[in-house]
Amino acid sequence: MEIIKKQPFHLLRYFLIVSIVSIPVASYVLGKVFRENAIGNLVSLGEDKNINIARVVANHVWPKYSKQFELLGNMQAEQMRKQLFMSVLQKKVEQYIKQTSVIKLKIYNPEGKTLFSTASDQIGIIKKQSKPLDDAIKGQTVTKLAFRDKIYAMDELLTQRNILSTYLPISDTNSVIGVIEVYSDVTTLYEKITSEHNAIVTGVIFVLLGLYAIIFIFVYRADKTIRLQCVEKQHDEEKIKYIAYHDSLTGLANRDLYRYKVEGAIEQAKRNESLAAILFIDLDRFKQINDSLGHNVGDELLKQVASRLLECVRTSDTVARQGGDEFTILLEGVKHVDEIVQVCKRINASIRQTYKIDGNELFSSASIGVTVYPFDDLKVDHLLKDADTAMYEAKESGRDKYIFFSTGMKRANVDQIILEQKLRKALEENEYIINYQPIIDLRTGDMTGVEALLRWDSQDYGVVSPVKFIPLLEETGVMAIVGEWVMKAVCEKAKQWQDEGYDPVTVAINISIVQFRKMNFVKTVEEALVQSELEPQYLKLELTESLLMDQSDTCVKKLLAVRALGVSIEADDFGTGYSSLSYLKRLPIDILKIDRSFITDVHKSSDSAAIVTAIMAMAYSLKLDVIAEGVEQIEELRFLSALNCNLIQGYLFSKPLSESDLKNVMSDPDYFRNKLLEINENNTAIAS
Ligand code: C2E
Ligand code: MG
Ligand code: MG
User: Fold this and answer.
1) Predicted confidence (pLDDT) at residue 55 exceeds the cutoff of 60
2) Which of 41, 234, 327, 623 has CA atoms 20 to 30 A from the CA of 272?
């Protein structure tokens, strides 16, 4: 999952290297080709001229002086120069070469002896080791271009000359009888060629430099674009990879990256013989906050939770968001389970702190399920699934806590799709059942009412908790139908019990936000009352505090309409959602139900005690009744009683009961009075 950075193509660098090499090479090659070509032309033109003159001499002079030339072969130089015909010959030759570029002409015999030269002091010299002369003696016409520092021509000394000399063999029928050498001065032409060559080379260099400058601009730009594109591409790739492996809202790792990290951590743990812990975290009551205060508030809450989670772990650990309000944490290189416990405690404490969002103060808590490699399982899938199971266990056993997975836990991770189908069918199959949990008035020991609590008695899974299936009902849109069924069924039961002769009992029904939002909500309440003929004062509706915080006109109107039917309204799970309580004045609420999380250990926790005390004081001033829910311990009851919180719901008095168990309880008017006496006795025993 790491990004390998690719180097961009170094266009500019390669261009510079290539051009630094190619410009001089191109200039050199072009110049050389031109020069060789020009000199080749110069030589061949000059050779033609020289040959022509040599031929003229050969045709006019040789036949006439051939005899003398033969004799000259045996003479000394001095004697040769004194020969009378020499001055005639000199004049003749001078005539031939006059007004030409020829500066010197020599005649050799086949032995290389100079028989005649326009520079008379060279007459009689035998030219040795001259390849061109030797070749000419063998019958070849040879031309040679050479630079001479000085050269004698017509008895005159010339300096710094470029001389083109041509050797023309003169033959009789079968052998070379002499060689004529013609020297022409090509200095001017040669210099012209040189200066043209220099001009061309300079020109070529300039043209190439000009072109280079233009190309350089393009290449420079192209190079810049390539680099930019490369950087952009890398950014894009990084971005794509980031998006692919991160949660867009919180920036945390996502499910895929998390899994990948877990796999790596397990490998590492195997090698180091260390532990790896998987924490599955679910926010408690997030859905209510999201539904009532809107997605923006929900999102902000998730972001704040994410950053708190990050603060609770080391940087080497991984915090991921699985989706919704579910987070996972991977703790690597753990040496002892105590370290995991410490992290879980830190998380619970941190998530419990107040959240300030849009001027509201919100509360949340986290239920954490933990699995540990290698204790719980060796396979990634199992570890993840079991942590989820443990998380549900944490939720069921009161939320805001961590629970380590144990094999004894039933696997709650039923396949979601099948579960949804079954939830839909459950109504037809009469699998939904209602339990009733009594609410006791401490002042009298009477049962003042019951809360109707839905269960799903599934053929496949046994009795399923509403904590698990109500969110699913809400998501799949079945909640409204089931909710309506609960309302009708409970109203009918309440009326039926009265008809059967039991004392009238008030029933409280939990209302889902999905149900409440339906246009016909008030009508369904009315219909349930009409059809069952239950008097409205025996019906209470429990709406979660977070649902009530939506103070829109429609919400308020609906609540007023329900109130107008004669039905009371309870704010359920009170204290968990909102701390600015001014909204209570605006809303038609009759009863507050303090959430179990504040009741549990209220006598030990100074925070909970402060919250419960504040709620009681406020309820007193607003003239609202208060029910404490989830009372399990005598110490909690004592604390509540001291605050004048007299309506109690909780396991201390009774768990939710089946209809028949409830009827048993109802048929004994002293049942709870006795229980209260029993509790009070225990209470005094504890107190003393
Ligand atoms: P709730 O309305 O806050 O209900 C109180 C929950 O606390 C019930 O859980 C009850 O069994 C539990 N409880 C009461 N006293 C104690 C105690 O002393 N100790 C412990 N540990 N738990 C206690 P239950 O029945 O699992 O229901 C959970 C939630 O499901 C309810 O919370 C309510 O929000 C929802 N619910 C239940 N029935 C319905 C229904 O018919 N419609 C809707 N919309 N929601 C329902
Ligand atoms: Mg309730
Ligand atoms: Mg509640």
Assistant:
1) yes
2) 327
Would you place residue 409 in the very low, low, confident or very high pLDDT band (cuts 50, 70, 90)?
low
Do 624 and 678 belong to one domain? yes
Res 415 pLDDT > 60: no
Structure tokens at 210: 């000009």
Measured CA angle at 512 (ends 321, 542), to 5 deg = 120
Per-residue pLDDT, 413: 47
Per-residue pLDDT tens for 279-322?
Answer: 999 998 888 788 878 889 999 999 999 999 999 999 999 999 99
Do residues 397 and 452 share a domain?
no
Query: Using a 6 Å CB cutoff, which residues line ligand 1?
Result: 398, 437, 453-454, 465-467, 470, 483, 486, 510-512, 542, 572-573, 596, 629-632, 649-651, 656
pLDDT digits (tens, 9 = 90+) for 590-599: 999 999 999 9
Asked if the structure places residue 16 within a domain, the reply is yes
pLDDT, position 4: 54
Residue 414 has pLDDT above 60, yes or no: no
Task: Report how far ligand 2's centroid is from the alpha carbon of 544 (Å).
Answer: 8
Do residues 171 and 305 both lie within one domain? no
Say whether both 387 and 428 belong to one domain: no
- The number of the ligand 1 atom at minimal distance from the alpha carbon of 454 is 38
Over residues 612-638, the mean pLDDT reads 93
* Backbone φ/ψ region at 501: left (φ over 0), alpha (ψ -120 to 50), beta: left
Q: Whose CA is nearest to atom 20 of ligand 1?
A: 630
Do 347 and 433 sit in the same domain of this protein? no
Of the listed ligands, the closest to the CA of 452 is 1
pLDDT band, residue 156 (cuts 50/70/90):
confident
Is the domain of 187 the same as that of 305? no
Give the pLDDT confidence score for residue 244 in this predicted structure.
84
CATH of the domain at 52: 3.30.450.20
Ligand 1 centroid distance, CA of 561 (Å): 26
Q: How many domains does one find in the chain?
A: 3
Ligand 3 centre from 106 Cα, in Å? 134
Candidates 166, 167, 144; CA nearest to 39 is 144
Closest to 572 (Cα-Cα) out of 559, 586, 589, 555:
589
Both structure tokens of 201 = 């080379």
Ligand 1 pocket mutation pick from 468, 478, 510 by most atoms within 8 angstroms of CB: 510
Nearest CA to ligand 1 atom 23: 630
Look up the domain containing 32 and give its range.
12-192
Distance CA 45, CA 663 (A): 137
Residue 637 CA: which ligand is closest?
Answer: 1
Atom of ligand 1 nearest to the CA of 466: 30
Question: Given the DSSP bridges, would you call strands 366-373 and 402-404 parallel, antiparallel or unpaired?
Answer: parallel
> Burial, 521: exposed, middle or buried (Cβ in 10 Å; 0-12, 13-18, 19+)?
buried
**Tokens for 182?**
């013609």
Report the 10 Å Cβ neighbour count for 308.
19
Q: Are residue 173 and residue 262 in the same domain, yes or no?
A: no
Average per-residue pLDDT in the chain? 89
What atom in ligand 1 is closest to the CA of residue 652? Answer: 18
